[in-house]
Amino acid sequence: MTSPFSLIVSQGRVADRTDGALIGARRTAEALGTLLDITPTVIGSPSAAITDDWSTALPAAEATLTGLRDAVRHAIDAGSIPLLATNTCAASLGTLPTVAERHPDAVVLWIDAHGDFNTPASTDSGYLGGMVLAAACGLWDSGHGAGLNPEQVIVVGGRDIDPIEGELLSRAGVTVVPPTESTPERITELVAGRPVWIHVDWDVLEPGYIPAAYRVGAGLLPHQIAAIFAALPVAAVRGVELAEFEAGDVEVPERVSIELILETFQHLLR
């Protein structure tokens, strides 16, 4: 049986401040490719991590972001479901505007400990990954498009949100659901039968399961993400992004993390 998914893996640096997420994206794509019996489309070439400002990281990622945009467009236009293994959330600068363009009625489930809704004017860290949703919603111009309706964005498991960022989220109409309220029932209520684009940053989890570069306590557990996936109608899923798996973490064996990623994802395959 032919898989409904087109597997895309980001291998170009997009504001990476650690080296593990590029490896994690590759390992995730290899495992998903084996599971689904499909060959990944590889976008970009790895380069060393560096702590740089968004204004430097953004032009450096131009080719990778453009490649991701084109790969997602090709997958959607071919009638398949994009399945992305990406390094950083900033890779979504290349995907979300295409989601807005091709699936304007879709809800974006941004399953993440962070709101990623800062702008160049509000960011304290200068980190590009913390600005991706704001760019896609048109609060600032990344050069890669916008068009996402913030009222169709649901941040699931959000808890590490700057005060100014929180104001921007509220003003824009983004729904933020804290971990204690991120139940399958609540999420399906908010989705309300609409098509969905799913983004998972693994730092949404309680630390100790799937390592990510930016760890935040009081997170969700893997089975809670799986339950949300299981509650979504299969036919409603328009795409999936799995981001920020920090491979090489000594506290969590890589095979354990990959097994958890696969187990969680398979709840969309029922």
TrEMBL record:
Q: Which InterPro entries match?
A: Ureohydrolase, Ureohydrolase_dom_sf
What keywords sit in the KW lines? Hydrolase, Manganese, Metal-binding
Entry GO CC: cytoplasm
Coiled coil regions, renumbered to chain: none
SUPFAM superfamilies, per this entry?
A: Arginase/deacetylase
* Top-level lineage group: Bacteria
GO MF terms, alphabetically ordered: arginase activity; manganese ion binding
Q: Which family does it belong to?
A: Belongs to the arginase family.
Protein name (record): Arginase/N-omega-hydroxy-L-arginine amidinohydrolase
Give the organism the record lists: Microbacterium saperdae
